[in-house]
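RESIDUES AND SHAPES:
===
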Amino acid sequence: MDNNMFYDAVVIGGGPAGLTAGLYLARACYRVLVIEKETFGGQITITSEVVNFPGTGPVSGKELTERMRLQAEGFGCEFMSAEVRKLDLSGDVKNVVTDRGNIECLGIILATGAHPRMIGFEGEAEYKGRGVAYCATCDGEFFTGKEVFVVGAGFAAAEESVFLTKYASHVTILAREPDFTCAKATADEAKNNENITIHYNTEVERVEGDSVLRKIVYRNNETGEVTAFSPENGDTFGVFVFAGYAPSTELVKGVAELDEYGYIVTDRNQKTSVDGLYAAGDVCIKSLRQVVTATGDGALAATELEKYISVMQKKTGRKAEMPVARAKAHSIVDSGKEEGKDSNDQADTGIFSPEILSQLKTVFDRMESPLVLSMHLDDSPVSEELKAYMEELAQKTEKLTAEISEEKGDDLPFVRIMKDGKDTGLEFHGVPGGHEFTSFVLGLYNASGKGQALSGEAEEAIQSIDKKVRMQVLVSLSCTMCPELVTAAQKIASMNENVRAEVYDLNHFPELKDKYNVMSVPCLVINDGEKVLFGKKNVDQLLKEI
């Protein structure tokens, strides 16, 4: 194998636990790669304010974890946006199979976290995306002026209920327990909010509707009283489920020991039942799931893995080369500065920060063919923003050219990716910022050549598509679950001229939200409504639908 794809350690998961593990391993002079399939920073990035992380004042989850990432990068930690498909842990040298190729390493830290758990009440799956939702940050604005029910009694239920009052006409919490199960300070914010009503000892029996939710039925477990709610004006409403999380341990199921709930079993040093495999964060069995405990897990797992790697380097005779120069200064304040210059004296980098430019350079260097960013504009401020964005991006590499098309088209503004004068099938309607910036760049990489590696079966399935398929991916730039579906759709479109992948920022195209009754993102519309699906999907899952 190419030694550039050999690492001392691979960390799977880019949340607080994974970022901390990467920092500690890199600081100990090991070559370490952190792989994240969605958003570096993990689920905490959708939290608007973190107030209980030691040593910091109120800070957004996104800002806090970006500081972590920059600090790890300063010590030489490397990062990859990819999906890990399989692990081979049988030998002294471990094999990590991703959708961007295979990676060898001596040790692995699993920090894949957990994903929202479904409760299973009648109608939950049927109305997912059509009224039933799991992310207040992603989907809250779809329920502006409408009634909202929150199901749960934990930290997320209490905190997100308060957040949802920004949009909803009223929030009703349905808590199965006799009281909240989270910290009193968090619970009190919900209890003292005049726009929130709380029903304890209450469970949802079912939800009903037509194309959207029209009715919810819930029961008091103590009195047996059953209540049915339907909006008086015939409107719809929302049900947000915050019933805990299910661990993301599919990669090690049947390989490492898991408990009855699917969480990975570790010893007090974060070691799993498999030599060379450690785990950290919400994927582990633990009584408190907070950023501070995740970072502690990551630090301990990394420190223990260091000892294992040292032994394996001697046993195997393999040691990863360090192609990434370690930063000379590691403070957050100094991160990104040129030596000898104050931050106020730096050259203007325009729209993109020095850190983003560094990541862009890596992608641009791997692009095989030049592309044209064909902009279809109107007179709106969004068009001006898109034009500035694309022109700035094109200035950073000779591989990209930004051009304004005389052809207007529908759903303006948008940028269409062209290669050798031909349409690649990739479009973004709106401005690809927020969580969609990375997916847009990956789309460019995939359109320029071979791009991200896929299994032979997936490539064969894509090439065999012999009918026209139009995929419209409806997203919100604040959604952490949208990029995976976007990247998968774009990858398929880049490999088959029969397939189109058109991405829409719903903030600018509300008519699509109304047309397809979208109340959750991501939403996938296939062939103008032939199928309307909700939730994130990878390439294999998407191929089954088209």
In short: The chain has three domains: 3-114+246-316, 132-243, 354-545. The longest strand covers residues 101-110.
